[in-house]
Design goal:
Layout (H helix, E strand, L loop, with lengths): L6 E3 L1 H9 L5 E4 L3 H6 L6 E2 L7 H5 L8 E4 L4 H12 L5 E4 L2 H7 L14 H22 L6 H16 L3 H7 L20
Parallel strand pairs: 1-5, 2-3, 2-4, 4-5
Helix pairs in contact: 6-7, 6-8
């Protein structure tokens, strides 16, 4: 985010705002299965691939913060960049994402999901393809060693840039696109 003017807020600061009963625009840009597994109470699911900023801004009050969260921050930054390209600089990034929220011991809404979290799917696919490539390289042709090499380069690129092509591909799979009605979240522990 070279030219980004996005603001940041810690999970603890956001929790205080939510517990105070403030009406906030809080969007979670992860996939439906990730959202189902654990999400911040009150967050509205709008997967990054489905985010239509122009449509969202039709219902947004200018000057009001739009709190954006994902798993660790990368997709939320991309969403905020999309808002900024449309002239809306109200984006507020939740530092560390949902993982930081959970690590801080803050309340989350959880549901049972039969779909593995996206990063576990990536690990399974990359690990399987790497192992298969290694076995095939040993048994059939050394050219199969290119498969684990490509997987390793992909992981290196994802680690350096925060952009994971495999995660983007898996997020588009049908089992990761199923969403229920997640807009009725309540803050747990607020009494």
């Amino acid at each position: 985010m070279e030219h980004s003017q996005a603001r940041f807020i810690s999970p603890a600061q956001l929790c205080i705002l939510l517990a105070a009963g403030k009406s906030l625009e809080l969007i979670d840009v992860r996939t439906p299965p990730e959202f189902t597994s654990a999400h911040v109470p009150g967050a509205k699911l709008i997967p990054l691939d489905d985010l239509n900023v122009d449509e969202y801004l039709q219902h947004h009050e200018p000057g009001q913060p739009v709190y954006v969260i994902c798993q660790a921050g990368g997709r939320a930054r991309k969403a905020i960049e999309q808002f900024e390209t449309r002239g809306c600089f109200d984006g507020v990034l939740i530092e560390g994402g949902t993982q930081a929220w959970i690590d801080a011991g803050l309340p989350v809404n959880r549901a049972t999901s039969k779909v593995l979290p996206l990063m576990r799917q990536v690990q399974i696919v990359v690990g399987s393809l790497s192992a298969l490539g290694g076995v095939l390289a040993l048994m059939m042709s050394p050219w199969f060693a290119l498969l684990p090499l490509l997987m390793g380069c992909g992981l290196l690129f994802a680690g350096l840039t925060g952009i994971c092509g495999m995660a983007s591909l898996l997020a588009k799979m049908p089992w990761n696109r199923q969403a229920g009605n997640f807009n009725q979240c309540l803050i747990q522990g607020r009494q």
